[in-house]
Amino acid sequence: MRKAATHLSKSALRSLASQHVTFNLSVLSSGFAASRRGYADEASLKKTPLYDYHVENGGKMVPFAGWSMPLQYKDSIMDSTTNCRENGSLFDVSHMCGLSLKGKDSIAFLEKLVVGDITALAPGTGSLSVFTNEKGGIIDDTVITKVKDHHIYLVVNAGCRDKDLAHIESHLKPFQASGKDVKWHIHDERSLLALQGPLAPTVLQHFVKEDLSKMYFSDFKMIDINGYPCFLTRTGYTGEDGFEISVPAENALDLTKAIMEKGEGKIRLTGLGARDSLRLEAGLCLYGNDLEQHITPIEAGLAWTISKRRRAEGGFLGADVIQKQIQDGPARRRVGLIASGAPPRGHCEILDLSEKVIGEVTSGGFSPCLKKNIAMGYVSSGNHKNGTKLKVSVRGRISDAVITKMPFVPSKYHKPAEGA
Amino acid sequence: MGLTSFAVDELGDVVFVELPEVGAKYEQGESICTVESVKASSAVYAPVGGEVIEVNSSVKESPEKLNKDPFGESWLVKLKVANHDHLKSLLSASDYEGLVEQSKH
């Protein structure tokens, strides 16, 4: 007999933050299995300083990367997504891992592990980069910021924390043993909040003395926000103008309440469900879906993260593989798709017009802002140009798709005026 | 047959519905159609075996209607019941409500 509807709440919501899940909604009778409560699972999940606040505000909590995080609140994921772009959103992203490298050899150390040109990075600015493995595949993506020449601040994904820290440590120890000057510190004493959307700068300005209009996309400051010593970066994961705020953990709740009060109902607490829709609309990759150990930054369309100097000199893990792909072109490439029919989801096959399999979807869903199905995936090179008509297979049904330039929704980053 | 209000609330905003062909036959428990939200797609299983005699195309055109009125306007499929014994195996509305309450704790 089929399992009954009792299973669907927690276990079904579990994966919804970033992936598609298929679950049983029907109500059949006798012989239903008792639903698994998973008390042990829930008790072992980590909680951010905002956990109780999320629950008080209607947060639907789900396990994510070992943390109990809000998937959504009282408003639907659709409304939450459109509200971010119309007004603004506050996300609790304290599950992510911030760390600092300090010492005069910290840049030399980091450049062994990431493709970024940290030497050339201007102090007070950051950039997206990736950690690579020996095959040139991506271990994790990260935003790396040069605070000053001997202090680098990085944020890595929650789901990759243990893997990344073990990887960094395994290289750090021999580097230090050879007499080099670099130390690391993991910022577990801090919590990360993301304030995104058109109202973000106005609201945040209430809490800082400095003129935020002069702080541009990718800029970083150590700054007091509402009197709390914060790390502030003008960046995000939504495509909107906005900020990521690293605040001391003991001040995270007060800062959240202060921001929400000044937001006057327009800034909404926003969960991981909407966060995933927003980043997909912005054409931003999600590690574990669009980026993986076996995918290189060249295949992923992230060659722009590798400067001319680093392409020539290498010096990071897997440099030889990456250099060859830069020269010869990669065998497959990440593309954006707009599709008709049912929304394509991860692992759906991408087909050419003769219905031959040429690739796979890695992320997909219905775009709340565009009211269309959008997706990202990889196709064999040659089939990757914008405008290429293709097909996707979703649960056995084939529908039309077209390769579309990303971002799907135009980004609104705060950049200096042209010629400034 | 259709979805309960508990089910649509759990799903969230419905964005896509795939309905079966009229005339197709399904066994009890077989996947008969699919309902999708922003984050999840869900198979809907035939509560009894039977033949599809009508589908509600208005739900295909406006999937969001399912969230508003799952018990009324937004039925999904009409089935001609093949075996009336199957009807005995179904939960009553009050039994179902009881199940839902349990699952919330």
UniProtKB/TrEMBL annotation, chain A:
UniProt GO MF annotations: aminomethyltransferase activity; transaminase activity
Substrates-to-products reaction catalysed: N(6)-[(R)-S(8)-aminomethyldihydrolipoyl]-L-lysyl-[protein] + (6S)-5,6,7,8-tetrahydrofolate = N(6)-[(R)-dihydrolipoyl]-L-lysyl-[protein] + (6R)-5,10-methylene-5,6,7,8-tetrahydrofolate + NH4(+)
EC number(s) stated in the UniProt entry for this protein: 2.1.2.10
Alphabetical list of InterPro entries matching this protein: GcvT, GcvT/YgfZ/DmdA, GcvT/YgfZ_C, GcvT_C, GCVT_N, TrmE/GcvT-like
Localization per record: Mitochondrion
Primary location class: mitochondrion
A single cellular component GO annotation: glycine cleavage complex
GCVT N-terminal domain boundaries: 50-308
Aminomethyltransferase C-terminal domain ranges (all copies): 332-409
Similarity comment: Belongs to the GcvT family.
Role, per record: The glycine cleavage system catalyzes the degradation of glycine.
Name assigned to this protein: Aminomethyltransferase
Species whose genome carries this gene: Ceratopteris richardii (Triangle waterfern)
TrEMBL record, chain B:
Cofactor note: Binds 1 lipoyl cofactor covalently.
CDD domains reported for this sequence: GCS_H
Domain Lipoyl-binding: 1-80
Needed cofactors: (R)-lipoate
One example of a Gene Ontology biological process annotation: protein lipoylation
Stored PROSITE patterns: BIOTINYL_LIPOYL (PS50968)
Subcellular locations according to the entry: Mitochondrion
GO cellular component: glycine cleavage complex; mitochondrion
Keyword Zinc attached: no
Keywords linked to the UniProt accession: Lipoyl, Mitochondrion, Transit peptide
Signal peptide interval: none
Parts of the chain that traverse the membrane: none
Matches recorded under SUPFAM superfamilies: Single hybrid motif
Modified residues annotated as N6-lipoyllysine in this record: 39
Annotated family: Belongs to the GcvH family.
Subunit: The glycine cleavage system is composed of four proteins: P, T, L and H.
Listed PANTHER family: GLYCINE CLEAVAGE SYSTEM H PROTEIN, GLYCINE CLEAVAGE SYSTEM H PROTEIN-RELATED
Function: The H protein shuttles the methylamine group of glycine from the P protein to the T protein.
Protein name: Glycine cleavage system H protein
